[in-house]
Amino acid sequence: MNNSNNPLHGVKLKDIVEKLVEHYGWEELGKKIRINCFNNNPHIKASLKFLRNVDHEWARIKVEKLYIDTFCKK
Fold it and tell me: Engineered SS bond to 72: which of 3, 35, 43, 68, CB 3.0-4.6 Å?
């Protein structure tokens, strides 16, 4: 994919998570994406650690998709 067409180009994972939390809140975010780091004692740092783990790529993909669907769709 050409970077100019990638809505996530230049957007840091931390910024994605923070913006989603600001928009939805932890409780709603945890309902939309059912992962423990959003539901049990949620914190940005713990969520980023989980999402950056290569074994949890599926979760990062869901977070990125929700970000695109929420903020990048015209």
Answer: 68
